[in-house]
Amino acid sequence: MEKLSNPQVTIELIKRHGFVFQKRYGQNFLIDERVLEKIVQAADITKQDCVLEIGPGIGTMTQYLAEQAGQVIAVEIDPKLIPILEESLREYENVTIRNDDILKIDINQLVSEQNQGKPIKVVANLPYYITTPIIMELFEQHVPLESVTVMVQKEVADRMQAGPGTKDYGALSLAVQYYARPYLVANVPQNCFIPRPNVGSAVVRLTRYTQPPVQVKNEEKMFRLIRASFRQRRKTLINGIGNAADLPYTKEETARALERMGLSASIRGEALTLTDFARLSDELEIAHPE
């Protein structure tokens, strides 16, 4: 069939199947050929690659991926989209369609079964309400992957790249930059989608590090510290950590750790770098091992 990057083809396909957009799934289908080509190019897809596409929708980007990749695994949560995907992708023998919630499946097992455990590339036009949980699931579960190339809300893209002391800097910035190198591929206007979203979008490529840029004794504990530090941005780091129910550290212990690092007891989380958080986590680990 003709490519779905042609808006008329997309509209006809949706009407033919009587499809109704589901607000709860955050469905906005990309219909701009130039943006689709940019995404596939940025993801650096080759015939040697196994691509996991999260949220293929009606298969618009899947068509482009299938032409470049060795195989594509398309995981779609909405069962009403499966008949549409089966039609739009029927010419592509290298595509596997799964009706599932990406947050409820064992992605490591999926990679093991479909790609013999070798690293995959993830490409997605993510529903904005669930962008962060999906990205963090991929990283925190240590899924073998080379890169994640995603369409996200422009605000989220800014947060992924933000540095200390900026308004966009936070827990997501630190998490992404611990696991991967973020690169802004393109800003995408609202008229590139059906229906038009209410916010601007951006394509970001996250290239996975083979080794994190900082070393820390307890990765999971460091991220608990980070989340606590940004939960109440206006509070000092000491108060944020001291008020966190999932952390055992007293304000005095945190103050002593900061003093050993040469940092003020009145410092806020937004002033600390990833290296600082790794050091703080190690200092507190020594002072208060769990």
What do these coordinates show?
This protein has 2 domains: 7-208, Vaccinia Virus protein VP39 (Rossmann fold), CATH 3.40.50.150; 219-287, Helicase, Ruva Protein, domain 3. The chain has helices at 7-16, 33-43, 60-68, 82-88, 107-115, 131-140, 154-161, 171-179, 219-231, 237-242, 251-260, 274-287; strands at residues 29-30, 50-54, 71-76, 95-99, 120-125, 145-153, 180-188, 193-194, 201-208. The model has no long low-confidence stretch (mean pLDDT 93). Helix content is 40%, strand content 18%. It is elongated. β2 (50-54), α3 (60-68) and β3 (71-76) form a beta-alpha-beta unit. The chain has 290 residues and is α/β, with parallel strands linked by helices.
Q: Distance between termini? A: 59 Å
| Biggest sheet details | 7 strands, mixed
Q: How is the CATH topology of the largest domain named? A: Rossmann fold
Do you know the CATH architecture of the largest domain?
A: 3-Layer(aba) Sandwich
Roughly how many Å is the radius of gyration?
21 Å
Number of helices: 12
Concise synopsis of the structure shown:
With 290 residues, the protein is α/β, with parallel strands linked by helices.
